[in-house]
Write a structure and sequence with these properties.
The chain has about 450 residues and is of the alpha/beta class. The chain has 3 domains: about 210 residues, Rossmann fold (3-Layer(aba) Sandwich); about 100 residues, Roll (Ubiquitin-like (UB roll)); about 110 residues, NADH-ubiquinone oxidoreductase 51kDa subunit, iron-sulphur binding domain (de novo design (two linked rop proteins), Up-down Bundle). The chain has 20 helices and 11 strands. The strands form 3 sheets. It has a 5-stranded mixed sheet. A 4-stranded parallel sheet has the order 3-2-1-4, with helices on both faces. Helix 3 packs antiparallel against helix 4. It is globular, with a radius of gyration of 23 Å. About 5% of the residues have low confidence. Bound molecules: flavin mononucleotide. Flavin mononucleotide binds next to strand 4 and helix 18.
Length: about 450
């Protein structure tokens, strides 16, 4: 039986309510931490657990907590990142919707460990109904003495607020999020200083993902070592994977790190294989910013080793033959999917979401979208493929925040693995235009886009 950490209590009817959550052991980690452990002991257990942040980058959570500047004596904060805008990713929404008190419980314990008396949950603007669920759950937590002054007579005070963004992907980047939380335009900040030194209101802050913080109660209740015993190598614990696309059983799954991807894919308990048993063409394993992988690299690394659900297993072969577990948005494509169209759609997203602060990202994402659009619509030129590759390589690593990298990797990997599909588009424009899975755009719109091209 696979270990369940986040979904341990998910099947209990009514677990979204305070009463049922509490009756089933909810908030015991707050009691344990505040009554029997010092803040540093809590951090120590989180370090011992080996848990890595679940927002995408996989940074060790305990280490991040220990970086928070306690020496300056300034007020400290925890900010929970519930912006979740990466296409293909909907795990945080699922957690907050079905078991909101798990996040609040984790946030209280984490704030205690950090010495934070004022903390926030920053939620994306489109999640308005979840915002209301969290507001209700927060009110219940206050009413029952888990938030506010002198919690459980421990002398620890905490106010926890939920703040709604206005709906921008870039506000998931932690420093853009902090700007937005302060009421400003969500532009990423230059680092250093890092949030651990100067975060929200220029005070020491830790930003952690919803899934990361929701894991904290289990770690405190069972001990860091028990958590570290689940998983593989430096990828401990479990990970939520949101599966979508041409599979039999789409949905959010909690998997133990180390599970073979092939088993996850074909087992009836999980994805159940392909719909209608059509051939599998490609997978994006970790949300739209991660590299697309063709069939031969989905279940095996470039070295032929089985691919596992872990941070390490996807990262083989560098930028092109590997990919990333990222935010856990596992998207599956069958043989009817046009990779050029798919890449154009992804580029359109990143162009729309670029904050515009850095020239390579602001201009480059727009150029990529336009070139992909014309290739997709049968108006591309042979040299466009190399121009596209060139543009993505000049965005990567040249921007303040990693949104530029996120826009560049999918294009690089798509050209690397599916170059012949791009060539087909430019060499047989009439066939491309007539294919029934290509949308027929009005030609005047296509021509307008080409005429407005800033690159030639
Ligand atoms: C463009 C961009 C968008 C991001 N969106 C999110 C997001 O929606 N949720 C999230 O937790 N992290 C997101 N991140 C990562 C955060 O910057 C940060 O690393 C994370 O919230 C830290 O939490 P963790 O250590 O628990 O993973 C994003 C990063 C970038 C560059």
């Amino acid at each position: 039986m696979a270990t369940k950490i986040l979904f341990e209590k998910l099947d209990i009817p009514g677990i979204e309510t305070y009463e049922v959550y509490r009756k089933n052991g909810g908030y015991t980690s707050v009691e344990k931490a505040l009554k029997t452990m010092s803040p540093d002991e809590v951090t120590e257990q989180v370090k011992l657990s080996g848990i890595r942040g679940r927002g995408g980058a996989g940074f060790p959570m305990g280490m991040k907590w220990s970086f928070i500047d306690k020496a300056s004596g300034k007020p400290r904060h925890l900010v929970v990142n519930a912006d979740e805008s990466e296409p293909g990713t909907y795990k945080d929404r699922f957690l907050m919707h079905h078991i909101p008190h798990l996040l609040i419980e984790g946030a209280i314990v984490a704030s205690y460990a950090l010495g934070a008396n004022l903390s926030y949950i920053y939620i994306r603007g489109e999640y308005m109904w979840i915002y209301k669920i969290l507001e209700k759950a927060l009110a219940e937590a206050y009413d029952n003495g888990w938030l506010g002054k002198n919690i459980l007579g421990s002398g620890f005070d905490l106010d926890l607020h939920v703040h709604c963004g206005a709906g921008a992907y870039v506000c998931g980047e932690e420093t853009a999020l902090l700007e937005s939380l302060e009421g400003k335009r969500g532009n990423p900040r230059m680092k250093p200083p890092f949030p651990a030194v100067s975060g929200v209101w220029a005070e020491p802050t830790v930003v952690n993902n919803v899934e990361s913080i929701s894991s904290v109660s289990w770690i405190v209740n069972h001990g860091g070592e028990a958590y570290a015993n689940v998983g593989i190598g430096k990828s401990t614990g479990t990970k939520l994977i949101c599966a979508s696309g041409h599979i039999k059983n789409p949905g959010v799954y909690e998997v133990e790190m180390g599970m073979p991807v092939e088993e996850f894919f074909y087992s009836d308990e999980y994805l159940g294989g392909m719909i209608d048993d059509r051939p599998l063409k490609a997978v994006i394993p970790g949300g739209a910013s991660m590299q697309i992988l063709p069939t031969q690299y989905i279940f095996k690394t470039a070295n032929g080793d089985p691919r596992l659900m872990s941070y390490e297993s996807w990262a083989d072969g560098g930028k092109l033959t590997g990919s990333g577990l990222g935010s856990g948005g596992f998207m599956v494509f069958n043989d009817t999917v046009c990779i050029v169209r798919n890449t154009w759609n992804i580029s359109r997203f990143f162009h729309h979401e670029s904050c515009g602060q850095c020239t390579p990202c602001r201009e480059g994402t727009g150029w990529m979208e336009k070139i992909l659009y014309r290739i997709e619509n049968g108006l591309g030129r042979e040299e466009d493929i190399n121009i596209l590759y060139d543009i993505q390589s000049q965005i990567e690593g040249n921007t303040i925040c990693p949104l530029g990298d996120a826009a560049s990797w999918p294009v690089a990997a798509a050209i690397h693995h599916f170059r012949e599909e791009f060539e087909y588009h430019v060499r047989f424009p009439e066939k491309v235009k007539n294919k029934d899975h290509f949308r027929n755009e009005p030609m005047d719109k296509v021509r307008h886009l080409i005429n407005s091209m800033a690159v030639s």
